[in-house]
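Input (structure):
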C-alpha cells in the first residue's frame, strides 16, 4: 500500500473507532436479488455540462495556446487530464441559458477576427468567442467524449441551427462544409446529440408550452443530420409542459430534458456551500432526493404518450446551487464543494440507476468552477472536489446492470426534516462482478448494513469528521477516498458505514 493510502486507511480506521464510541450504529438490512432491475446504466448518466459562464470555460478549462499554464491547443492539461481519468462520456455545450443567446458564427474563423460580445446572461462580461465550435470539438476529442451541442431556438431562426449542423457534419462540397475546411477541419465531425433550445419556459424565450411545441417541431425539422434530437423540457415542476411537449412534439424528438437543482433554502437565500449546520445538511439532502419523485412523475407523463419508451429522459442539468462565494462575481455562480456535495452526487446517481428505463443521460452542472464543479482552478492551480471523487468512486457502475435489492433502513430526523438513514444501489458490472454503493445520510450515527451476500467487499470510502470538509488549493487532499474492506470471514457480508459517508465496493463471492 502506498504511504498516502496507508495514511488514509489509518485516518479512516481512527474515525470509525471514534464514531463507534460516540454512537451506536443503526441497523440496516440489504437483500440483493440476482434479478435485473432494469436496462443497463448508460455511461452517459455520468455526463457533464460546460457553459460560457464565469470561469467555467475561460480560466477553468481554457487558457489559450499562448498561456504559461501547460495546455494542449489552449485546453489546460491538469484539468483535462483529471477529467480523462473519469472517462467523461459526453459534454453539453455552450449552455444553458447562454445557448439561446449564442450565434455559432461568432465562434469560427481566425480568432483575432472573432467579435467580442456581451455575455448578457452571465454577468455582462465580454465573451471573446475565443472558444468556439472548433475548440469545443477539440476538447471532446481530447477527453474522448461525445459532443452534445445546445442549439439556439430562442433568438435565431431555424436556418441558423440547421446551418451550424451542416457546417459541422457535412462531408459534401457545400459552401458551409468548405468553410469548415478553410477554418482548419477537413473531416466532418461526429455530433451525436443536438439540443433544440434550453429552458424555453424561461431564459430560452419565456414561451408557453404550446408555442414551444410548435417551434420545436419547426426547428427539429431542419436538423438534417442523423443526431439525437433533444427537446428542452421541464425545470420547474411543470407537468403541463411535459404533457404538451410529449403530445405535440413526441414524434420530432428522441429525448426530453429535465433540469433539477438541489437548493437548501430558496432562490432568494439559497444557503452557503460551507459553514452550514446540521439542519442545512438535512435540508440539502432532502432537496437532493427530491430528484427521484420528479423523475418518476415526468416518466409517468412520458409513458402516457410513449408507452414503449422510445424517447429518453436526459437530466441534462443537475447539482447543488448555493449562494455565490463571498467576494466573487454573483453572476459567475462560483461555490465551494464539500462532503455534502459528494453525498448529493451519490444520491443522484443511485436515483438514476433506479430509473434506467428512461434516464439515459445526466449532466452535472457544471464541469469546472461553476455550481457543483468537479474541479476548481485559480490561475495555474487546480483542486479536485469531493464531487470529482464521487464520480470516480462510481466508475464501476458505468454500463452495469442494476439489480433488484430491498433496503430496510430506519429514518432519522433533524428538526422537521426526515430522511432515510441509508441509500443503496447494487448492479452487475460489465465484467460480471457485483458493485454496491452505500450512502449514510446521517451526519451523527454510523450504520451497519447486513446483507444476504457471501464473500468479501473491496473498494473505497469517502468520509470526514466535518460535514463541510472540502479541498482547498492549500490542502488539495483534505478529502479524498480511502481504501475500504469488509467481509471474508465466512459470515454473510456486513458493511460498516461511518456517519456521512459514501462507500462503493466490488463484492467477490
Ligand atoms: O447551470 C446554470 C443555469 O441554470 C443554466 O444556464 C440554465 O439552463 C439553468 O437555469
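Output (sequence):
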Amino acid at each position: 500500500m502506498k504511504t498516502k493510502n496507508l495514511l488514509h486507511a489509518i485516518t479512516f480506521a481512527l474515525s470509525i473507532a471514534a464514531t463507534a464510541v460516540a454512537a451506536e450504529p443503526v441497523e440496516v438490512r440489504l437483500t440483493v436479488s440476482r434479478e435485473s432491475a432494469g436496462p443497463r446504466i448508460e455511461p452517459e448518466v455520468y455526463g457533464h455540462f460546460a457553459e460560457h459562464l464565469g470561469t467555467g470555460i475561460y480560466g477553468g478549462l481554457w487558457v489559450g495556446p499562448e498561456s504559461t499554464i501547460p495546455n494542449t491547443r489552449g485546453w489546460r492539461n491538469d484539468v483535462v487530464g483529471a477529467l480523462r481519468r473519469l472517462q467523461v462520456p459526453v459534454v453539453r455545450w455552450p449552455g444553458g441559458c447562454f445557448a439561446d443567446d449564442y450565434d455559432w458564427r461568432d465562434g469560427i474563423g481566425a480568432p483575432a477576427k472573432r467579435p467580442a460580445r456581451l455575455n448578457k446572461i452571465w454577468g455582462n462580461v465580454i465573451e471573446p468567442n475565443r472558444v468556439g465550435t472548433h475548440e469545443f470539438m477539440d476538447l471532446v476529442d481530447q477527453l474522448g467524449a461525445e459532443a452534445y451541442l445546445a442549439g439556439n431556438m430562442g433568438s435565431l431562426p431555424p436556418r441558423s441551427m440547421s446551418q451550424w449542423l451542416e457546417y459541422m457534419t457535412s462531408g459534401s462540397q457545400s459552401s458551409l462544409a468548405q468553410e469548415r475546411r478553410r477554418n482548419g477541419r477537413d473531416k466532418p465531425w461526429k455530433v451525436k446529440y443536438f439540443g433544440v433550445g434550453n429552458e424555453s419556459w424561461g431564459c430560452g424565450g419565456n414561451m408557453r408550452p404550446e408555442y414551444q411545441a410548435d417551434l420545436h417541431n419547426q426547428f427539429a425539422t431542419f436538423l438534417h443530420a442523423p443526431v439525437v434530437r433533444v427537446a428542452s423540457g421541464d425545470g420547474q415542476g411543470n407537468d403541463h409542459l411535459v404533457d404538451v411537449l410529449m403530445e405535440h412534439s413526441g414524434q420530432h424528438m428522441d429525448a426530453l430534458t429535465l433540469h433539477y437543482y438541489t437548493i437548501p433554502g430558496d432562490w432568494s437565500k439559497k444557503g452557503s456551500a460551507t459553514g452550514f449546520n446540521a439542519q442545512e445538511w438535512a435540508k440539502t439532502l432532502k432537496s437532493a432526493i427530491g430528484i427521484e419523485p420528479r423523475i418518476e412523475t415526468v416518466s409517468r407523463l412520458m409513458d402516457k404518450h410513449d408507452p414503449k419508451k422510445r424517447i429518453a429522459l436526459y437530466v441534462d442539468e443537475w447539482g447543488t446551487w448555493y449562494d455565490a462565494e463571498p467576494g466573487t462575481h454573483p453572476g459567475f455562480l462560483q461555490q465551494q464543494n464539500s462532503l455534502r456535495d459528494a453525498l448529493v452526487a451519490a444520491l443522484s446517481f443511485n436515483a438514476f440507476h433506479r430509473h434506467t428505463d428512461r434516464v439515459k443521460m445526466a449532466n452535472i452542472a457544471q464541469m469546472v468552477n461553476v455550481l457543483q464543479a468537479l474541479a476548481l482552478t485559480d490561475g495555474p492551480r487546480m483542486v479536485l472536489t469531493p464531487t470529482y471523487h464521487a464520480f470516480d468512486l462510481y466508475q464501476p457502475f458505468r454500463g452495469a446492470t442494476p439489480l433488484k435489492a430491498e433496503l430496510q433502513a430506519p429514518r432519522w430526523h433533524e428538526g422537521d426534516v426526515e430522511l432515510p438513514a441509508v441509500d443503496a444501489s447494487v448492479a452487475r458490472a460489465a465484467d460480471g462482478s457485483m458493485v454496491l454503493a452505500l450512502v449514510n445520510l446521517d451526519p451523527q450515527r454510523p450504520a451497519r448494513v447486513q446483507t444476504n451476500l457471501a464473500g468479501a467487499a473491496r473498494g473505497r470510502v469517502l468520509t470526514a469528521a466535518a460535514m463541510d470538509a472540502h479541498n482547498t488549493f492549500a490542502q488539495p487532499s483534505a478529502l479524498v477516498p480511502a481504501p475500504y474492506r469488509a467481509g471474508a470471514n465466512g459470515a454473510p457480508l456486513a458493511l460498516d458505514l461511518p456517519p456521512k459517508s459514501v462507500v462503493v465496493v466490488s463484492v467477490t463471492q
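Notes: The chain has two domains: 2-38+403-508, 43-399. Residues 1-7 have pLDDT under 50 and may be disordered.
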